[in-house]
Design a protein that fits this description.
Beta-galactosidase, Chain A, domain 5; 15 helices; elongated; 30% helix; 2 domains; six-stranded antiparallel β-sheet; eight-stranded antiparallel β-sheet; Glycosyltransferase
């Protein structure tokens, strides 16, 4: 994006502004898109599928923006190359043919975009193809009907394709739809929450996949499948009551889990809510969540010099990417532009943008094994979490899922090496070493309990080192209590939130870092067996939020053989001058913990 275009799009106060932002992104892609081609390259990095499929993926993901734009009545010359690409890519006699798919094929993922186009545009799309071209398109997409796919949200790709067939008047398979829905019903946990397959995580795929596709189906097929549409809508309503807590007042969302390079897709759920007319928040509140989120992103260095979305999160960063991220993968971000299918007179566009609704300071979400904390008038959101581990695509999975806390302002750091604490992503983790500088932390949890006032987890760093951990929100702080039963003599390092490298202050009980992007502190609450405060400086590109070296306040200590306890308090703020004077009080008495918030006087009693 050019500087002028970027400045204009950041205002994002109207439908025209959002259209301009999307057209600018599509215009940058157009410059990389040769005429009469079925695909285009966006870079030289690789995913676990071949380059030809990666090039087709980038083209296909652009359609998540283009098709809603066309459905909303916006005419653009940018569409011609894509229509020509579809003709060429689905023609088995053409050199650009996208090919026959196999089990677990990435091209099955991309088919959903074409299903959406058929579902939204119907004859406006089919009429641009000849009879033979339409047969080619149908035959190529129909490969997904009985395709072998992961037991996950991928089932929705087949459903969206069948929905497109049906709405466009093409042959479709009702039994395939029923089969896929029935398979996904096994993932439903209750209260609007799914897991992404049996035993798999509860992350942004629940919002940007399950509910996003579900609301499209419920909206476009409500007349013929009213019972299922009602169930999908009701589940999305319940999910929305929790998911709004992932959004901060400044437009940020809490980075957590895999596929963060899809960026804007973090709030694609709210675009589907607007598209479906779901009565969960006011149109102005939904509009505010989406537009603030887009402004937040468009103020970040996420585009390269040609205006192409990069791999990474808040800046280009290949280190954090999954093995299924190709140069075109980030364009799933365009799913957020589903709102452009809504006409200008729709209540969503007519509404005045509103701030977040009033939210509680904490929100416990049992199905996701999380507690969301809002402080500084929701300018800072912290997620406390336990219990998730993603091994399907094993790239920095501990950093993305198993830390104690994640922040809308400070994100998290990723591991940069296997040796030495500065490489070990120690922010918001308790790491243990057998005095050899190789560190282990929490991965999978053997037991998890989520209560309104705390999360408990049991985990093992070795098969003879067992740890019980309590995470307790308390105002702007959260407390951590660890009971360690170890057959080994170990060293421990426990970190707070990672901020930009800056001078730090050490005291008898902790470390405070006041950086350009905010302040972070960790305090030791134990009168005996105190841990030593320190500051760890990580290599550049460790944080998902900023490229500079990160600074992490930590507590270091020794773990003896036998049973021992660690007590600490952690806080962070966007105010770089913050000193965090009022530390919560922790008392252990008669097999219970009593936590008192000095600011409010609130007491939490936790049985041990």
């Amino acid at each position: 994006m050019t500087t002028a275009t970027k400045e204009k799009s950041i205002s994002l106060s109207s439908r025209d502004d959002v259209i301009a932002a999307l057209v600018s992104m599509l215009g940058a892609l157009d410059k990389q898109f040769p005429a009469d081609s079925a695909q285009f390259p966006l870079g030289n990095t690789c995913a676990h599928y071949d380059v030809g499929i990666a090039n087709m993926e980038g083209l296909s993901r652009a359609l998540w923006g283009l098709f809603p734009l066309l459905a909303g009545g916006v005419e653009t010359t940018l569409s011609k190359k894509y229509i020509d690409a579809i003709r060429l890519g689905t023609d088995p006699e053409n050199a650009g043919y996208w090919g026959e798919t196999g089990p677990y094929d990435q091209r099955l993922v991309e088919m959903a975009a074409y299903g959406l186009g058929l579902a939204l545009l119907q004859d406006k799309l089919t009429d641009v193809f000849s009879e033979r071209e339409l047969r080619n398109l149908h035959r190529w997409l129909d490969q997904i009907t009985d395709a072998e796919m992961p037991d996950s949200n991928w089932n929705y790709f087949a459903i969206i394709v069948q929905l497109g067939f049906k709405r466009a008047g093409l042959p479709w398979d009702q039994q395939a739809v029923e089969r896929r829905f029935n398979q996904m019903e096994a993932y439903y946990l209750g209260d609007g929450w799914y897991s992404d397959g049996p035993g798999r995580p509860k992350d942004y795929y629940i919002s940007m996949a399950f509910h996003f596709y579900g609301l499209i189906y419920a909206t476009l097929n409500a007349e013929d499948d009213p019972e299922r549409a009602a169930v999908l809508r009701e589940r999305s309503c319940r999910f929305a009551e929790d998911f709004i807590y992932m959004s901060a007042a400044d437009g940020a969302s809490v980075p957590f889990g895999r596929s963060l390079t899809y960026r804007f897709a973090m709030v694609a759920f709210w675009s589907a809510v607007a598209f479906a007319g779901l009565d969960v928040l006011t149109p102005g509140e939904i509009k505010g969540v989406i537009l603030r989120h887009l402004r937040w992103w468009l103020d970040k260095p996420i585009f390269d010099r040609d205006g192409i979305l990069t791999l990474g999160f808040a800046y280009p960063n290949l280190t954090m990417c999954e093995d299924y991220n190709s140069p075109g993968s980030p364009y799933w971000a365009l799913k957020v532009f589903l709102i452009l299918a809504l006409p200008a007179e729709h209540p969503f566009w007519q509404a005045e943008e509103k701030a977040l609704p009033e939210l509680a300071e904490t929100r416990a979400i049992a199905h996701a094994q999380q507690i969301l904390m809002h402080s500084e008038a929701s300018q800072h959101v912290v997620m406390l979490t336990s219990g998730q581990l993603e091994l399907n695509n094993y790239v920095n999975t501990e950093a993305k899922y198993t830390k104690f806390a994640y922040s809308s302002r400070f994100g998290f750091t990723i591991e940069r090496g296997r040796y030495g604490i500065k490489h070990a992503a120690c922010d918001n983790m308790l790491l243990l070493s057998e005095n050899d500088d190789y560190f282990r932390g929490r991965r999978g949890c053997e037991a998890v309990q989520v209560h309104e006032d705390f999360i408990f987890s049991r985990w093992s760093a070795w098969n003879d080192v067992h740890i019980d951990s309590w995470l307790i929100p308390c105002g702007e702080w959260h407390l951590r209590v660890h009971r360690i039963d170890s057959a080994r003599r170990l060293t421990s390092v426990e970190g707070g939130f990672a901020v930009m490298k800056a001078a730090h202050q050490l005291t008898d009980d902790g470390c405070l870092i006041q950086a350009a992007n905010g302040a972070s502190t960790i305090r030791c609450l134990a009168a005996q067996g105190k841990r030593q405060a320190d500051c760890i400086i990580t290599p550049p590109n460790s944080s998902v939020m900023f490229a500079e070296c990160a600074a992490i306040p930590v507590l270091r200590g020794e773990v003896p053989v036998g049973v021992s306890w660690l007590y600490g308090a952690v806080a962070a703020s966007g105010d770089s001058r913050k000193t965090f004077a009022q530390v919560p009080d922790l008392a252990i008495d008669n097999q219970q913990m009593i936590v008192t918030d000095p600011a409010s006087g609130k007491r939490v009693v936790i049985p041990l």
